[in-house]
Amino acid sequence: MSTINVLDHVMVPEHKIMSEEDVQALFSRYHLTSDQLPKIFHDDPAAKAIKAKIGDVIRIVRFSQTAGIAESYRLVIKRPKK
Amino acid sequence: MPSPKRIGKIEFGLFSPKEIRKMSVRKIIWADTYDEDGFPYPQGLMDLNLGVIDPGLRCKTCDQKAADCPGHFGHIELAKPVIHVGYTRLIRKLLRVTCRNCSRLLLPPTEIEKVLSTDEESGPDVLTEKDIKKEQICPHCAEQQYKINFEKPTTFSEVWMEGNRKMEHKLTPADIRARLEKIPDEDLRALGINPVVARPEWTILTVLPVPPVTMRPSIILENGQRSEDDLTHKLVDIIRINQRFKENQDAGAPQLIIEDLWELLQYHVTTYLDNEVAGCPPARHRSGRPLKTLSQRLKGKEGRFRGSLSGKRVNFSARTVISPDPNISVREVGIPLACANEMTIPVRVTPFNITEVREFIMNGPDRKDVNAPCGANYVIRPDNRRIRLSETNLQTVSEMVEPGWTVERQLRDTDVVLFNRQPSLHRMSIMAHQTKVMQGKTFRLNPAVCPPYNADFDGDEMNLHVPQTEEAMAEAHILLAVQENILSPRFGGPIIGGIHDHVSGIFMLTHGLRWFPKRDVLYLLEARNLPRLPPPGREEEGIPYWSNKQVFSLILPSDLNMVFRASSCQNCPQCKEESCDRDAYVKIIDGLLHSGTIDKKSIGAFDGQILHRIIRQYGMRRSADFIDDMTKLAIRSIMLDGFSFGIDDEDLSKTEYGQIREVLDTAANDVRTRIKIYEEGALEPMPGRTEEETLEMQIMQVMGKARDRTGEIAGRHLGLENSAVVMAVSGARGSMLNLTQMAGCIGQQSVRGERIMRGYDERTLPHFKRRDRGAEAHGFIKNSYKSGLSPTEFFFHAIGGREGLVDTAVRTSQSGYLQRRMINALQDLKVAYDGTVRTTGGRIIQFLYGEDGTDPAKSSYGNPVDVKGIVESVLKEES
Predict the structure, then answer these.
(1) Domains along chain A?
(2) Interface of A with B (CB under 8 A)
(3) What is the DSSP string of B250-315?
């Protein structure tokens, strides 16, 4: 079976795991704690493709109709049972 | 006042029979309420221990009067246990996952361990029904398990196979309770139930709490008769059956009778808790009305949550019919004198305003004239006692007032009030207006503010609220004022602007070139209040004339520059600009209209370009003034020429009628030949379509074209001297299609985008032959509204019209619910000071509002910067 990398698809925005320092900078910039971040499941195809682990923070850069380029950040969490 | 405390946790659990008895102040055994003297029976449903509702009596439990006693619970001992309908799901689940013999979980401890701790830090997990296999043998006592059948509303039974026979055994509530009692605490914890606060057997009622009388007060009708609350009625039923049940049980009645009574008791308790359970006929009042029992009190729009806690009725509000008044500003609202006299604003008396306040009081509560100064209705003393003002006490009260008192002053001109029309679908449905006290009995509003409220004057009513504090008034004035809401956040353009007659009027004024003598110019601009007129554009025989474009330019800001195309623009491949045949090339340089016609595109609500530019360049206040000037100028210009439409405006000449007939005949012939080709099987189907579909599409196309051709023919005859054409071209109302249907031909009627096919066997109506595929047989209307429809045409027209009505009815209810859910999901989000969108808990929804941090109401049709506008105002030419 051939596998495809979802990140190569045009509709999937860029996902990158952030370094520890970047995460700290992000938290201090927005006065955040990790539970206030938007979430992404650990088994999300994009999260799997970049081999993100639970607790990682992912930076997502996507094209935006209004702003041109928009950045967003998500915390990887375990998918809850049902 | 005690400081607010943070809630640590909330625990939900079930009442145990023990707790119910403990909190009960009285055991209730009598089904009756009051004796002949109207005194409550002891141990009856209205027992004085349960609280008092009649004034004068004292509660036997807390010794307080009716107003202070909160009421106390009683209880009923049920003869046999019954199931609580609210927990049938839970009971079913528990019966299915536990052993019928030993009541242990049907899973060996090792398996339980596996499910509970699947992962390290993920926290405790719970067992579900799916983790347990059906029909197996108990791992603890090796008992064969049976299938548990549940039948709505409250019947449980065991089903098993004996040979080839299907066996069924009904479980009584007592059986079920015995099973639930035996489930060990550890097994319950594995299922996510905290046995300390919610033992499962407590879902089977053995004792029923009786709510206090304060919760179910009886009302006394005019004829002196008592009418009991629905809950009391239901409790009476329960006690009666319970009593009979007990008697039969003690007398050793046969099993059959006992079972019947048990079921009846179950029914009454079920409907007492919820009278809308599936599979259970609702308990009814003597009159046939279903009773409103516990669940019905809480559920739904009029329930406790949505109706009493989230929504309440308010004071200082008014509601009446609205009517238009083009002579008041868009910022104002006309209020009937009777209404203004009733509604008040509290004024704190200070040393600085005491003389003014004394005047309010001296004016009294009965203002006779709209121009008279406002009076006052009440005076509030520092000890919060209210004194009602009347003709007799004005003098004494006005001498009594001193700083520290409060006077409730009547509404007067230029007060700030909130004005609202339901359904309040967007934020512009509530705006702050300045009051203007007027004669009459209706609220008056400028027709230009109709679009944001979606109001018209066919009997619409609107609500008005009077802010009661200075903060509220300031907030309303700064955030909700009409001029602050001209730009809609929905699309970043003006939502307030010229409608209907404003657009027609301004179009007729500015179209082409016209010259007005001084008299007419002054008439048109009467409301503008100009210091002097500009030099006339032309002089003839010593009489000065001003052009129509000059007149319009007088309401524009003097340094406005813009170039755009009006609604009447036809998008010609090569634009002729200033020499446009339709005068659709609008060019404004330094506040002077050089060419072009002003219409919907310039000043209309939703897409008024001039309006939009004035807001961005000169601010909200100037644009509100512009709307006022523009609407008044438009109304005066439409009155200068007069504007009407009659049946003879749809008349065409003989040649046009001939041409229309010709077009329709050729179309009908075309359809006939196509049908013939199809019937001969020679039709080439389009890709992905059957031959029949192809034919239908072709016919639709031919008929559509034919209708449009008749429209063109009619349009050739009808020019700008026709008022319907003026309205269609200027964008005021209607379209050329409407005109086509009035004068030319109505065209094909359709249902779901197809010709009308339904009706009788192989034909739409008995007037046609079976399998007739012709135009007339499937809803083509040759006639116009003017010429009148034939009976079959009329019927087809009704079919097509019905579809539209059904569509709108369905759409409004669906989109209403959609919007409600959306509002519930988004209502607590806010944009924080760092530009992020967050919930109340600080959780981030968006890292920058709308990804670009732009307020759509302050944007230019969604773009943060209006590049075209800036270029135009600098270069003074089209960008």
Answers:
(1) 9-77 (3.90.940.20)
(2) 30-32, 35-38, 64-67, 70-73, 78, 80-82
(3) HTT--HHHHHHHHHHHHHHHHHHH-TT-TTSPPPB-TTSPBP--HHHHHSSTTSIIIIIIS----S
